[in-house]
Amino acid sequence: MAEGPVPVLLVTGFLGAGKTTVVNHILAEAGGRRIAAVVNDFGAINIDAELIAGASDGVISLANGCICCTLEGDLLRTLANILRRDPRPEAIVIETSGVADPADIVRNLLDPVILREAPLETVLCVVDATAPPAALEDPLLLAQLRMADVVALSKTDLADAAGQQRVREAVARQRPSAIVVEAPQGQVPLPVVLPDDPTRPPVPRDPGRRRPHADRFETLSWTADAALSLPRLQAAIGRLSPRLARAKGVFEAAGQPGRPFLFQLAAGRATLAPMKPPSGPGPAGLPRARIVFIAEIGRLSTAEIGAALEECIVPT
């Protein structure tokens, strides 16, 4: 008997909205369902792929580009390879980069060959419930909302009632047909985004005409095979943050060898949390400190980032 279609969940959302947290929740709550995860980070260092839980049927990283433009062919080839796996996954989750316009990705997923084998089931847009009014008018976020079947409001525990209502109204203006759910700590209800009936016909979609792609953001990476001073790093990020749209990275702090920390900067808020040490030797060749910075083109240079972070290195 021929195997049935494998539904695809496309997860989109602006920089720092919380997409990876949502994907991790979906994988953790899969209940034994085989789910393949495709992660696209905008940069040469794919931090998000490191953060995806090991509950998936294999995490595939598409780095150093955006799947809405430079990596279109890679995405389709990746999906074709996933569908040839034995055993075949029961679902595929694609996490886009925060700079992706999902209309272009949807257009690629409507390829007749892919659509027959891996129909696009749901477009899930993750929206930061604490987003200020100006952010809710960002053209990229609006493009992401216009493609959404489901909108997940993240960080609701940090947003007041008035702020959440403002976000809900913005969503309703752009995509009144979307289902809106709250997703504290990424807790999206699985039946809403991955229904149990994979045989039902795909939802008709019209991504519209292909629009010219204009580069708006750039990514700058910094690595060092050394531990960092935590106070100096906090000071350096404080100086750089006014010109950053997003930053994230993994590093070891001085005096705590072998204990990685996860640093994230989103919507002007910086967070730092210890990560679970790898149970095995971990991926070979990774520097002890690796951080990705995303900024609008021309606002920061590699030299400026290097000068700020080199001061954080603690000599051994």
Automatic annotation (TrEMBL):
Coiled-coil ranges per UniProt: none
Annotated catalysed reactions: GTP + H2O = GDP + phosphate + H(+)
Chain segments carrying region Disordered: 190-214
Stored InterPro entries: CobW-likC_sf, CobW-like_C, CobW/HypB/UreG_nucleotide-bd, P-loop_NTPase, Zinc-reg_GTPase_activator
Statement: the UniProt record of this protein carries the keyword Lyase: no
Record keywords, A-Z: Chaperone, Hydrolase, Nucleotide-binding
Annotated CobW C-terminal domain residues: 217-313
Matches recorded under Pfam families: cobW, CobW_C
CDD domains: CobW-like (cd03112)
Protein family according to the UniProt entry: Belongs to the SIMIBI class G3E GTPase family. ZNG1 subfamily.
Function field: Zinc chaperone that directly transfers zinc cofactor to target proteins, thereby activating them. Zinc is transferred from the CXCC motif in the GTPase domain to the zinc binding site in target proteins in a process requiring GTP hydrolysis.
Protein name: GTP-binding protein
Organism: Teichococcus aerophilus
